[in-house]
What does this fold into?
Amino acid sequence: MYVSDRLLSAHPLRPVLVLCSISACLLTVSAQDDDGKKKRQQVITNGRETTVLTMPEDSEGYIDYVKALNDQFSKGVTADNNFEVVVRQVLSPDEISEDMRAEYFANIGIPLPKEGMTFYQDYTTWVLGDDPDPAARDRAFDEHGTLMSAPWKYDDHPMATLWLERFGPDIDRLAEGSKRSRFYAPYLSGASDESEPIPRVISILLPSVQQQREIARALAIRAYGRIAEGDLESAWKDCQAMHRVAAHVASGSTLIENLVGIAIRSIAFGVESHILKSPDLTHEHAMLFLADLKVRKPLSPMWKKIDVAERYMGLDTVVTLARHGSKHGLFRVLKTISDLSDISGGASAATLVGLPDEPAGLRKIDAKPIDWNTTLRYLNEWYDRLVEAAAEEDFKKRRELFAAIDQDLEKLKSDTTSVQALLKGVILNGTQKALGKSIGNVLVALLLPAVEMARKAEDESLAKAEVLKAGFALRARELSGEEQAKSLNDLVPKYLPEVPGDVCSTGKLKYVLREGGFWVYSVGRNGRDDQGRTLDDEGNPGGAELRWDDIVIRTGGTAQ
It folds into this structure.
């Protein structure tokens, strides 16, 4: 699976959940006594401070976090109210691993598709067919970029027009289906393998996520065509459908799902900005669309993803280490941590824990001295801090909380030499709790997601919503025949209840009159007023500290 929109590609997060098929994950192997009876594990105490959950347990008494996620997010979901059912009836099941397909469809309560069924195809797939020609692929992708960036005329793009005629009914069905009240796409992980004990939560598959983005792109292409034809009401309905799709995806438990929801809303923002600037926009349109914007709800908050799936991922990792360490010794624990570094994209765990090339001595050392409950408590303290910072609504205080977290994380990562020395000392003559915390330090360095970056993406999405409301309010005032607003205060209370705040700063949205119109904007992720200049403007300086990233709607003037 891939994430190609600028929102994610320009601001990448450490991949804490694997979206592609990972066949290696934990196999539950029950310890047995001499009589062949299963023994209940005694290395972890299930409870609020350690595992957070006390149920569901697997056959050995370890918490099954994947089942917990499915139990939680499938509550109240039926085949009649689940948007994923419509998605599966319209889009190809090929994204779902074949060995998991039957279980996936059973979990959402519908039969597997019959052999030979035809499904919706995105624009480039349909245009290219089986043509492997690189030049044709380049042309198709260039055309797709054009269709996704601005209004287009049917006569100028005959292939796109034919594609819409062919798959318009499918797009209609998905748009209507998005009105369903729930969304549940089952969380499944890859095949089990005792030799590669990768935690199950970290190997969760999210096959529906990329297809939700395909749905949004289809709606955007159609909406841009409708704008060019002057059918703004139909284009707006496509935008509304995009926002419903985004809300469905973001209702899941993971950061990835939330970020994809944000990316979809970013696609919709581009379309809505063109609707706002359309010469066919009337006062009636502007007031109708503004009313929709006022009642549009934000996406499920980011902090909830940290508190659930991200936390479960960390705790499940500890459970995996404890399970295998109790059976295979300390070296197996350190080897598994080292393997996790390849998945998490973090620092080399072999360096962090001082894993030798020839670990003959470590192979003989039992892992039972590790106090895994200490490791779990330590991880929970870090997740608690992340949740507190991400949930903080006060901009200044939130920045302070994240700054403190970053400082502590940098110190932890820079102290790898002392962590290595501590591990060696504890192995030879240490305490169970000290070793448990040392393991916790390494896992924190490897697995904690870049939450502040995710929170900034969330702020950007919220800022776009406020900029859009202000923009439509300004256009509604213009189209009513009133004089152009001198400030955003002129919109209160007739068009807006108050001057919109800028969630990316401690101030309000910026507003300037320009020749032939106005600019209204947020200062964006960097928190700095770049005078309404954006990432896309010519001359944008490089580097995260210098580049412009204001979020702006312009109806007049040009960027300087």
User: Anything to note?
Assistant: The longest helix spans residues 451-479. Residues 312-452 form one domain. Strands lie at 188-189, 204-205, 510-514, 517-522, 551-554.
